[in-house]
Write a structure and sequence with these properties.
The chain is of the alpha+beta class. It contains 18 helices and 21 strands. The longest helix is centred in the first third of the chain and has 52 residues. About 45% of the residues are buried.
């Protein structure tokens, strides 16, 4: 190799070296610039992003307030539970993980597949299922499944199962009250959930020195109801037995404490278990004693008699001639059973439940005054309970009355009430003519146990005490051997009441069908009533008369209530008011 060739080769090597060196300097310079950019300019935002990726937000569920009966017995309580969560980016084997979880939770294949689907993806936080028990979580936790975590929450439990179910309601999966008291007082019961944010390790554990913040939950306020759990149980059992006996569609029962207007029992049948509401027919969730309205039928005759007596138009001994039928413009009225001309007192009209006699008495009163009394008793007006879906009933305005309105309204056709409304009307007569709006809430319980009474309702005088006493004495003949409800009598106690067999309107033809609502509403002891119990059996197939179907339920429930209150038997005997003349 000559000198020139050697020199050329060295020149090319030198050029390559310098090129590589220049390229290296360029690359390193680029890294340097990027490093300076990262450290000097992007470091704060990158640090924040890294922190956000490590940050978990945990819901701190507020403890929902308890619902108790008037004596403090629990009707709805909250217990500790867990929501099962996952970090999808940490899950190793979604199929096997889902299988192991499903095995512990004892769920079907469809639910297992849903869990598996929730494990697949790039989300750092997803719910797999909610409100599992602490013991179930402990079993899952022991498996040390990557990416599987939990958060504390609570689950709603109803210790009495179906007791007062349609009154209390239930809480849905998202923790919101779905119906009943749980719904109408949801905001108060629920309180306010809190939040906790913290930096976590790859395993999901909180970093001791990491950033964290916490907003504490505010516990809900408890509610004490006026309901007596033991009486509620007796009422539900008695009502269920009678609805089944009558092969009826449904039944309702309302028991009211006369001197306070407090509802002691509010029963519906059929019912459901709020611990497992989805296993029942949603129709059973409805509190029909408040939501449904119906024509009261002959139980309304007590209000007609109260108005007539209070206006001094007629008294218990006033004599009426009751023809076989009563002809009025565009309509002929008759009683529930054919009869010849009868000679009944006003007391006898009530005892025999004569439609014709009641019409004659109401016509003596006149439609203007009669309308005023119906309004005073609360027909067509809300009860004030603010229960979800509650019906106000219906009473046409006086200007809308037809020529047949007065006679039909007199014996309980043409206007509508719900079961609580009609029970409250009887409680008015029982309470010496003073109407006390019904109530369901005794008061409120703070987290520290402090109890605050609910505002007391304001009484309104509807009829005078003397008129109320006269009507009660007339009502005692209904449960006598001469009346329509001897099966409602209670040995040792004076009882007053009234039967009803109301026809049901067929919405298709807007006419009365063959279906009926058999009812009885009574009070005891009649000389100084403590309790009113109203029972309605809807669409019975085995029997149709209120005294026979509903009377025995009154007897069982009222007798229990009287004995539970240690009320001594009645002194003296009912006045022997004449039924006929």
């Amino acid at each position: 190799m000559n000198f020139l060739d050697k020199k050329a080769r060295l020149s090319r090597k030198s050029q390559r070296f310098h090129a590589i060196a220049a390229l290296t300097v360029l690359v390193l310079g680029g890294y340097g610039v990027k490093l300076v950019e990262l450290q000097a300019y992007q470091a704060p935002s990158l640090s924040l992003k890294a922190t956000e990726n490590r940050t978990r937000t945990v819901l701190l569920t507020a403890n929902r307030g308890e619902i108790t009966d008037r004596k403090g017995a629990p009707l709805a309580i909250s217990v500790e539970a867990r929501n099962l969560t996952a970090d999808q980016t940490k899950v190793v084997n979604p199929g096997e993980t889902a299988r192991l979880i499903a095995e512990i939770l004892k769920v079907d294949q469809e639910q297992q597949a849903a869990i598996e689907n929730s494990l697949i993806g790039e989300k750092r936080f997803v719910y797999l299922t909610k409100k599992i028990t602490p013991s179930q979580w402990n079993e899952i936790k022991a498996l040390r499944l990557p990416g599987i975590y939990s958060e504390k929450t609570n689950s709603r439990i109803y210790p009495g199962d179906s007791i007062a179910a349609s009154l209390i309601g239930f809480v849905g999966a998202e923790g919101y009250g779905m119906n009943g008291i749980e719904h109408s007082f949801n905001e108060m019961l629920a309180g306010a959930d809190g939040r906790m944010k913290y930096e976590s390790s790859a395993g999901g554990r909180q970093l001791p020195q990491g950033l964290s913040s916490q907003q504490d939950p505010v516990p809900g306020i408890g509610i004490r109801l006026t309901i007596d759990r033991d009486l509620q149980y007796v009422a539900e059992q008695a009502l269920a037995e009678r609805v089944e006996y009558a092969q009826a569609k449904s039944g309702t029962l309302v028991a009211i404490e006369v001197k306070t207007g407090k509802i002691l029992a509010l029963a519906n049948y059929p019912t459901f278990n709020p611990n497992t509401p989805l296993e029942s027919d949603p129709n059973t969730w409805v509190n029909r004693a408040l939501v449904d309205s119906y024509e009261p039928g002959s139980t309304a005759k007590v209000m007609t008699m109260a108005a007539v007596v209070n206006e001094n138009i007629a008294g218990p001994n006033t004599q009426f001639v009751i023809p076989p039928v009563l002809k009025r413009p565009s309509k002929t009225f008759k009683d529930h059973e054919p009869h010849p001309t009868l000679q009944l007192t006003l007391t006898g009209v009530l005892a025999k439940s004569s439609n014709i006699g009641t019409i004659l008495a109401a016509e003596m009163l006149g439609k203007n005054k009669f309308y005023d009394y119906l309004k005073k008793f609360g027909v067509g007006d809300p009860t004030g309970l603010n229960f979800p879906g509650e019906s106000n009933g219906r009473l046409p305005k006086l200007n809308d009355w037809s020529v047949t309105s007065l006679p039909t309204f007199a014996f309980g056709q043409g206007y509508m009430v719900n079961a609580v409304q009609i029970a409250s009307m009887y409680a008015t007569v029982a309470n010496d003519g003073k109407r006390i709006p019904p109530s369901l809430v005794e008061g409120f319980i703070q987290e520290d146990g402090t109890f605050t009474h609910a505002p007391a309702p304001t009484p309104v005088e509807v009829i005078s005490p003397s008129s109320a006493q006269i009507v009660r004495e007339m009502m005692e003949t209904v449960v006598s051997a001469e009346g329509t409800a001897p099966m409602a009598s209670i040995p040792g106690y004076r009882v007053g009441g009234k039967t009803g067999t109301a026809q049901v309107v067929d919405p298709e033809c807007r006419c009365y069908s063959t279906e009926v609502i058999a009812s009885f509403i009574g009070m005891a002891p009649a000389e100084d009533p403590e309790i009113v119990v109203a029972i309605a059996i809807h669409h019975p197939k085995n029997g149709r008369w209120g005294g026979r179907l509903a009377g025995p339920v009154f007897k069982e429930v009222a007798q229990y209530a009287l004995q539970d209150r240690n009320l001594p038997p009645s002194e003296g005997t009912p006045p022997q008011l004449p039924v006929e003349w």
